[in-house]
Design goal:
There is one protein chain. The chain is α+β, with helices and mostly antiparallel strands. Helices cover 62% and strands 8% of the residues. Helix 2 runs parallel beside helix 4, helix 6 packs across helix 7 and helix 10 packs antiparallel against helix 11. It is elongated and about 145 Å long. It comes from Zootermopsis nevadensis (Dampwood termite). Keywords: Coiled coil, Endosome, Protein transport, Transport. It is a peripheral membrane protein.
Length: 325
């Protein structure tokens, strides 16, 4: 059944957080003592400042919370350890209850009918109580309080489940003994029907969202391929850029003024060597006078020209260096 599946799969942490949120929503002056574990709710009843300490066990809300009242009071809902044990909302507490409403109902009960403090002579308490006020040792309650608590408990049960008024005693007995019948009864309760409708609505919205996402899948796939093509083109451009950068660096080094100056110096030395070789050829009789004069003058002129250019360029570079360039 849908309600049972929902109860079994509900996230415990989210449910615990929701319960704590209801405590802060329905009550004022809530102080956190230990996150997700212990809280204190302050209020006033009968001119006395009072507090309810709310302790949440590890399995809460599957387990009931522990509520402890301070100071010690004489009330049928509170035992001798100052723990609230007989409040209707606490007796009927389930994972579907609201912790904030339960505590709110207890505070309203104390505000409407301020309980006497144990040991308070002016509060109209019986002299049969023990004298240990601070130890919460008094566990006896007067018959009027017991009858009042029972009546309030029965009234809250009827108000919580008005559908029970239409059932006979035999039907109620059968309902309490049959888990399937109880589940069927719970499934027909208005809050559960509302919850089931909300779940169905959420499922429908999720299905619509999933279908919408599927319709966008071809477009996303097309965009993915487009991005992949652009990445490949970017990789090609990157390789080309790196190759051109290397070529630019090579040419930049080659045609730098200092490189040109060095090239002129080496070229002048090469021309000098060639002129020396021509002179040796002339001395060994391998070339004529006319050939020697023509070739030798050409090489010496070229060498001198290159040396002149080298010296001029070197002078210009020194001036630029002195100028800070």
């Amino acid at each position: 059944m849908l309600s049972r599946i929902f109860r079994e799969t509900e996230n415990a942490a989210v449910n615990r957080k929701r319960q704590i949120d209801t405590l802060k929503i329905f009550n004022d002056h809530v102080t956190e003592i230990q996150e997700d574990v212990e809280y204190r709710v302050e209020f006033s009843a009968g001119g006395h400042g009072m507090t309810i300490q709310v302790s949440l066990p590890p399995e809460f809300p599957l387990e009931k919370p522990v509520l402890k009242v301070s100071p010690q009071i004489d009330h049928p809902w509170v035992n001798e350890q100052c723990k609230v044990v007989s409040a209707p909302g606490l007796l009927n507490f389930t994972v579907h209850s609201d912790l904030g409403r339960v505590v709110q109902a207890i505070i309203r009960e104390f505000e409407r009918r301020p309980p006497p403090l144990v040991g308070d002579a002016g509060g109209g308490t019986s002299t049969t109580h023990h004298t240990g006020q601070e130890s919460c040792t008094s566990g006896r309650t007067s018959p009027p309080y017991m009858m009042l608590a029972f009546a309030q408990q029965q009234q809250q049960r009827v108000l919580s489940f008005p559908e029970l008024l239409d059932l006979s005693a035999a039907e109620l007995e059968h309902l309490s003994q049959s888990e399937d019948r109880l589940d069927e009864f719970i499934d027909k309760l208005p809050p559960v029907l509302k919850l089931n409708n909300a779940v169905e609505d959420m499922i429908s919205k999720n299905e619509e969202l999933a279908k919408e996402n599927l319709t966008k899948e071809p477009q996303l796939e097309k965009l993915r391929y487009g991005v992949q093509d652009k990445l490949e083109a970017l990789a090609i451009l990157k390789d080309s850029y790196e190759s051109l950068s290397q070529e630019y660096q090579r040419l930049s080094d080659k045609y730098a003024p200092s490189s040109i100056k060095e090239s002129l110096r080496l070229a002048a030395l090469h021309s000098d060597e060639e002129s020396e070789q021509i002179a040796e050829q002339f001395l060994s009789g391998k070339i004529s006078v006319e050939q020697f004069v023509s070739m030798y003058l050409q090489k010496r002129t070229l060498s001198q020209t290159r040396k002149t250019k080298e010296e001029k360029l070197g002078s210009q570079l020194k001036e630029l260096e002195r100028a800070g360039y």
